[in-house]
Amino acid sequence: MNAPRSASTPDRTRPPEPGQLRPFHLGTPLNLDRPSGLRLRILREARVPLVSGCLVLDAGEAVVDPELAGLSILAGDALQGGTEERSGAELAEALERLGTHLRVSSGWDATTVAFTCTAERLPETLALLAEVVRRPAFPADEVERIRNQQLAGIEKRRKRPSQIADDRADRTLHPAGHPFRRPMGGTEETVSGLDREAIVDWARARYRPGRAGLVLVGDLEPADVELLVERHLGDWTGTTEPPPPLPAVKVPEPRPVVIAHRPGAVQTEIRIVHPGPPRRTPDLHPLQVANSILGGAFTSRLNLNLRETHGFTYGVRSSLAMRRGGGQFEISTAVGTEVTAAAVRESMKELVAMVEDGPTEEETARARDYLAGVFPLQMETTAQLAARLARLMIYDLPDDEYHRYRDEIRAVTRDAAHEALARHVAPAGSPVVLCGDADAVGAEVEALGLGPLEVV
Q1: What pLDDT score does 2 carry?
Q2: How many helices and strands in the chain, by DSSP H and E?
Q3: Helix, strand, coil proportions of the chain in percent (round to 5)?
Q4: Do 124 and 51 meet the contact criterion of CB atoms below 8 Å apart?
Q5: What is the pLDDT of residue 6?
Q6: What is residue 445's predicted lDDT score, i.e. its pLDDT?
Q7: What count of other Cβ atoms lies within 10 Å of the Cβ of residue 306?
Q8: Residues with Cβ < 8 Å from 438, sequence gap 6 or more?
Q9: Sheet arrangement for strand 213-218
Q10: E strands present in 337-425
């Protein structure tokens, strides 16, 4: 027999009500821009004796010439192959003695070099960072090794259904000459032609302080840091040209429905895509709320439909990739071959309903609370803070972007989320791209009447 529940015993038959959002205070970084054009941001965060740094270089793949596609990625991966003073092994040993390492990442809009070290090791770490970026050797044998790795990755990509679908969706959505039409890591043809000379020329042109930035966050004294930066980067010179505007991406007419044929495939990768706005869009926060409701959270409409109601998939999501020169909206999932057409139908149904009718007040409130609530979890460590501040530089965002974020998210209304999504996403103009067995799914997909079917 169950004992009676006392007033202090929680009622476990109902989930608890969410509590009030706790205050979150983010410090304001000091802006100490250098005469060279290097933007320097310093944020003192002394809770632990660590410092995280992120150097942002205006060296993204989007400005690479089409015939050299993959160059930014190759140069970034080869950056730690050695310097004019040390071999790659000697550089790795020097970083290991400091208890740190450099993380080089190249994307469409920038190349970043990040690190985390103990506060007392910052002078030596910053010296090594400057040496790597300013005096890279790019040894021919290291370039060859890393180029072969990149080519192997390209070959592997051609065999993975999810990446086949991604690449085909990019080609379907973007016009000829647009960098987003190609894989960010280049193609076998372009990467095979890259050599040490091409990488050296790229680094000489793009690894420059003008339009670059350095973020340092942690247990540090700004005056001391400013002297360190002057010592190691003060005579660094040069700038880069602003990136040219990217070609316009228009909604294809009629809507393409493309199947990348994989005979005998037991699953189908599904992509529904649409051009999206750049990161600086004033509709950012309403779009984030709308996307969370549609497919950006586990309790989203898409997931509740395709996973929970129909059991088509383990998971489905919608996403907004917002870059400096434009973005992309996408619904993505993988389902069994036998339910491919039904999954496409239900995905389109949810997208159309969201764009035409918008979310409910309850959905909007839940998405607002979720996005505002998890935001501080993304800013817990010095490395997370440095990465966030680096994004402000990459996308030319105001310094108070994150100070305003939670208030602006919580101010999004149901109508604002609805109108933003309807303004930027047209379901009737959203290409549908599949990677699967066209013989097994083609007729049912064509019967949906979404657009002319092409099998490639």
Answers
A1: 55
A2: 16, 12
A3: 45, 20, 35
A4: no
A5: 59
A6: 98
A7: 27
A8: 259, 261, 455
A9: 30-31, 39-44, 213-218, 50-57, 111-118, 103-106
A10: none
Tally of CB atoms within 10 A around 92: 15
How far apart are alpha carbons 286 and 416 in whole angstroms?
6
For residue 7, what pLDDT is reported? 58
Strands (E), 18-95: 30-31, 39-44, 50-57
The b/e string for 249-282 (b: 16+ C-beta within 10 A; e otherwise) is beebeebbbbbbebeebebbbbbbbbbbbebebe
| Structural Rg of the chain based on CA atoms | 25
Q: Which amino acid is at 126?
A: L
H-only helix segments in 395-437: 401-410, 414-424
Count CA atoms closer than 13 A to 445's CA, side-chain side. Answer: 30
Could you tell me if 293 and 359 are in contact, meaning their C-beta atoms sit under 8 angstroms apart? yes
At 263, list the tokens: 């005979």
Domains of the chain: 30-233 (3.30.830.10), 257-455 (3.30.830.10)
Phi, psi of 306 (to 5 degrees): -75, -35
Q: Do 96 and 227 touch, CB atoms closer than 8 A? A: no
Peptide bond into 278 cis (omega under 30): no
Nearest to 95 by CA among 106, 105, 86, 107: 86
> In degrees rounded to 5, what are phi and psi of residue 375?
-55, -45
> For the chain, how far is it from start to end, CA to CA, in angstroms?
66
Point out the residues of the chain with pLDDT beneath 70: 1-8, 18
Whether the CB-CB separation of 132 and 80 falls below 8 Å is answered with yes
Q: What is the DSSP string of 139-205?
A: -HHHHHHHHHHHHHHHHHHTT-HHHHHHHHHHHHHSPTT-GGGS-TT--HHHHHT--HHHHHHHHHH
Beta bridge partners of 455: 259
Q: Give residue 74's identity as a one-letter amino acid code.
A: L
Query: Using the 8-state DSSP alphabet, how is residue 52 labeled?
Result: E
pLDDT tens digit string along 114-131?
Answer: 999 999 999 999 999 999
Residue with tokens 């109601």: 309
